[in-house]
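Run log // design_07
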């Protein structure tokens, strides 16, 4: 068997393993696959370029702890939005110094720095969204 043929056989073996982790919706739990088939998981980039490429090539959708609604990016966005909302509400009735003392003696400057940072990201997105909605 030549190298190209061996390559195809091993690639097909990974595809077959991936298909065993499909649920009724056709999604694959990549977290479970990685934990239970670590050897095959580490070979995916060699045969497909990346895990994402392998999934796209076979029109599969990954699920698990690291992908989807619970992904770190989405959790970070949610955390930032909640922190921004909380700071906006707290600033209505409290000074920056009072807010800092509520959270373990954080300095006024640190509270202000956090608010400014969140305002530049979360606040700017919300203002942009408002502008788009009012212009429509």
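design_07 sequence
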């Amino acid at each position: 068997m030549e190298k190209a043929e061996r390559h195809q056989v091993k690639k097909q073996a990974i595809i077959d393993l991936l298909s065993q982790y499909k649920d009724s919706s056709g999604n694959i739990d990549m977290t479970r696959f990685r934990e239970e088939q670590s050897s095959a998981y580490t070979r995916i980039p060699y045969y497909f370029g990346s895990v994402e490429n392998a999934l796209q090539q076979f029109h599969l959708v990954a699920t698990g702890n690291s992908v989807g609604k619970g992904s770190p990016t989405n959790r970070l966005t949610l955390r930032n939005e909640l922190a921004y909302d909380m700071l906006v509400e707290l600033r209505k009735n409290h000074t920056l110094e009072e807010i800092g003392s509520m959270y373990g003696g954080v300095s006024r400057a640190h509270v202000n720095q956090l608010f400014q940072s969140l305002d530049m990201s979360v606040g700017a997105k919300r203002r942009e969204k408002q502008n788009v909605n009012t212009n429509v």
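The longest helix spans residues 108-135.
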